Model the fold of this input.
Amino acid sequence: MGAGLSLSASENKTAAKEFYELRVYDLKETGSQASLDEYFQNALIPALNKYGSKQVGVFREMAKPDSLKVWLLIPYSSFDAYLSTTKKVKEDESYKKASAAYNAIPKDKNVYSRYTTSLMIAFDGIPKMIVPKKDTRVFELRTYESYSEDAAARKIKMFNKEEFPLFYSTGLIPVFFGEVIAGDHMPCLTYLLTFPDLETKEKNWKTFIADEKWKVISKLPEYADTVSKVISTMLEPVGYSQV
Done:
């Protein structure tokens, strides 16, 4: 799998960079998660697919079956596509019909309290999402906060210039990398990795940290103090997720 994905990333380097929207829904204990799933599966995702967003991911946190959070990842070919797709979906008659029951949920049975949104531009080194095979897989969503805009820019440069080949060689397989331009935790970057299982995830991160190339790269002065906090969340896709 790794070799194939690495080739895809190489081929993508000449492509235009994608634009990503990552929503995190805070569900209410009194709401119906099934209603949100039905809305995503039968209304929102088909409409997004119709207007060009072909690989939409829906995830829940692993090892927390009662977690009241849902992650929705939407790729767009560009920022302009984000604007036009959002408008077209809202105006689409099939979408309106399919989402009617969801929109009719009364206030006291509302599914979520709020959702937050992060908007991201793909990195130069991985300009397009790399969707893994539909087999057993887990995902790690990582956000790197930086103490300043310059620190965040230097960390992005570090990935583009130094880290991506090392990621592939040590089994850290990317799905996407995004520079956050609007959302929480700014200045920051967010990325998603995929693994066949948790054991492989732990083993591959240890391999990465122990790698001699990483030991050299991590000590380069131009990349000093680029990350002030790492937020890591293990996710698993719902059955209808396209990622």
Q: What stands out?
A: The chain has eight helices and eight strands.
